[in-house]
Amino acid sequence: MKLSDRVDEIKLWIDQYPWLDMLTSLSIVILAAIVANFIAKHIVVKGLHKIISKLSFSDKPMFLSNKLISRIANIVPALIIMHGIVTVPFLSPNVESFVQMCTQAFIFLSLALAIFELLNLFNSAYQHNPVSKNKPIKGYLQLIKLIISIVCVLMIVGTFLQRDVFTLLASFGAMTAILMLVFQNTLLSIVASIQISSYDMVRIGDWVTLPSLNADGDVIDMSLHTITIQNFDKTYTTVPTNKLVTDAFINWRGMSLAGVRRIKRSIHIDQFSIGFMSPEMSERLQNFLLLNKYLEQKGAELEKFNESLSNHDELNQRRLTNLGTYRAYVEMYLKQHPNISKEATCMVRQLQPTSEGLPLEIYAFTNTTVWKDYENIQSDIFDHLIAILPEFGLKIYQEP
Asked: Where does the protein end up (predicted)?
């Protein structure tokens, strides 16, 4: 028997069983999809990865770890099933339509995920640019992802309802108020992200303090909805983006840019130890190099003032006090200190007396912003200033 006759017999036999013809054709379509998926994933994708791995550029690991090519490869078997299902004989039109709608929805989803991977790739490449620390774009990319997600959902819903996307948008117009209520936090985050970026309020790496949320540390990540802060105790605080617009916070970036850090601390003097300086104390303090010039100038100034008074007007005569001399000593000590900035403000002042003594406030700036160095400089300064107080006949107030 000829081969053609054998084939005709097989066809006649298959025609007697429509379900067998349908099952055979369906198996061929599924097998073709599996083969296409294998070729796309294991030959094309891996081949492209090998080509990229042989190239020499700084962002190669980032490209290799990205799933953009794999997401696009998922579309190939879906297209074969979508177009091949119409060739299957004796298949119910409803089943055929349902399979086409499912594959079309899968293609829309795969395209959306591929765009997400492309945006992630762009963000990773942008983060290698030094400008990214001042102008992060992660929030904007998340906004684009949100829009793409909404469009993808509408297209998938439109596919199953067999309606145009614009028709669905018109139908959702009546639900605008409800949608705004549902996406209230997202809308607030979008506005906040735009304001933060436009006014350069916060950058990645900034030290910020949010008293209302008990957050104090460095900004390590900025996204559309949240800003992540690593506190100094190595814990993490996730702050809603709009909180940086609605709540007060401190950004210490100005201190870092200036290269100085402020010292603002008071020494509480026992007010019973404050008095006029005796000649013996004045003579002893003349040996202090920092006070030698001050005592000479101040002594000449007071002598000139007192000469203008009557000899019997001793009560109104001006005299040196131990607190005033100590205040002058502290100011001169700070000005000649090697770790105190000479350009920034440096002063010593009295504050309002309280029941806990008379506060003598030191206001100066160190020439470093490193935390440990700053604390060491501040501690060394106050160690000296407290230890030398008895030389001026002064005492620290300490509650019994």
From this structure: Endomembrane system
